[in-house]
Amino acid sequence: MSGFDFDTPVDRHASGSYKWDDTPDSKIIPMWVADMDFRTAPVVIEALRKRVEHGVFGYTLVDDSYYDSLTTWFNTRHGYRFDRKQVIYTSGVVPALSAIIKALAPEGSKVALQTPVYNCFFSSVRNNGCIIADAPLKRVDTGAEAFTYLMDFDALERVCSDENVKLMLLCNPHNPAGRCWTRNELEKVAEITHRHGVRVVSDEIHCELTMPGHRYIPYATVDPEAIVCVSPSKAFNTAGLQIANIICPDADIRKAVDKAININEVCDVNPFGPVALKASYSNEGKEWLEALKKYLWHNWVYLKETLNRRLPKCKIAVLEATYLPWIDVSSITDNSSLLEQKLKQEAKVWINSGDMYGQKGYIRINIACPRSSLAEGLDRLCNYLEKL
Ligand SMILES: Cc1ncc(COP(=O)(O)O)c(C=O)c1O
Question: How far apart are CA 318 and CA 304, in angstroms?
Answer without folding.
Answer: 9
